[in-house]
Amino acid sequence: MSDPLPRLGGLPEPEKYERLVERLPGLWWGDTGPFVGLHQLNRVRVEYFRRAFGGFGGKRALDVGCGGGILAEAVAAEGAVVTGIDPSPRSLAVAREHAQRAGLEIEYREGRAEDLPALGFEGHFDLVFAVDVLEHVDNLDRTLGAIAAVLAPGGGLGFLTHSRTIAAFLAVVWNEEYVEHTMPEGFHDFARFITPAELSDGLARNGMVVQELRGVARTAAGDRALSDDLSVTYLGWALRTR
Fold first, then answer.
1. Which of 64, 83, 176, 180 is the most exposed place for a label (fewest CB within 10 A)?
2. Buried (b) or exposed (e) across 147-167, using 16+ Cβ within 10 A?
3. How many CB atoms within 10 Å of residue 224?
4. Could you give the CA distance from residue 8 to residue 186 in angstroms, rounded to a whole number?
5. Which of 65, 74, 63 has its CA nearest to residue 104?
6. Is 220 helix (H, G, I), strand (E, B) or coil?
7. What is the pLDDT of residue 175?
């Protein structure tokens, strides 16, 4: 059986998503395809962030690298005032259409994570989410500084990314892209993966202090669940302290 997924190695990060949505228009919200696992993962991360931040209702939230709006819609459905940004116009078009069909008011803007302060946001956000995006940015420290610039003092950052370990390479890159072909070849750049220590240090340099880190593992049934193993995928939250 031929592989319907395009090979993405060597493309700029935003172009990877453009190419994917062009090839698979139903990518973000379909019942099949490489992003089906994101919906399983979304249930785990939303539950985690709900507990960490004491719910979302009435809070002003920014979803950085929102893609097709999977996290943004879940948070908006629980009463948050949500803005999503993403550099992929095709992904944003999908996000806007799906939110409209779902009856949710979400503001979507085109832009890169590194350029948040230049997008003209008024005031500060109570919550910022950066899930499945930090390993795709061109400049991590600039991105973290940009997040801090739009996050209110005392506000919370929720994040999820992959650690730069052999275990993560085998699970996320080798197995998903080259063995099971559940993700396109070249989608992940292992050199961009971030260890928990590196992320914690980067956040601290930009006035945000990590409060908790948890691993995310696959269960025997193929679902996602929290774990104490940070060696592959991990999530957590941080507070802006200054």
1. 180
2. bbebbeeebbbbbbbbbbbee
3. 19
4. 5
5. 74
6. coil
7. 92
| pLDDT of the residue at 25 | 85
Query: Which two three-digit tokens encode residue 38?
Result: 């994101």
The torsion angles phi and psi of 15, rounded to 5 degrees, stand at: -65, -25
- Residue 142 in tokens: 């600039």
Dist. CA 204–CA 52, nearest whole Å: 19
Neighbour count for residue 146 (Cβ, 10 Å):
23
Q: What is the mean pLDDT of each run of 10 residues along the chain (242 residues)?
A: 71 90 88 83 96 97 97 98 96 97 97 91 92 95 96 97 98 93 91 98 97 91 89 97 85
CA gyration radius for the chain? 17
Q: Is 79 helix (H, G, I), strand (E, B) or coil?
A: coil
What the block records as the tokens of 2 is: 């031929």
Report the C-alpha gap between 207 and 210 in whole angstroms: 10
Q: Which residues pair with 239 in a beta bridge?
A: 156, 209
Residues 186, 25, 87, 176, Cα dihedral to 10° = -30
Paired with 108 in beta bridges are 84
Distance CA 213, CA 205 (A): 18
With left for phi above 0 and alpha for psi between -120 and 50, is residue 132 left, alpha or beta? left
pLDDT of residue 114: 93
- According to DSSP, residue 182 is labeled S
Burial (CB < 10 A; 0-12, 13-18, 19+), residue 123, is exposed
- The CA distance from 186 to 70, in Å, is 23
pTM above 0.90, yes or no: yes
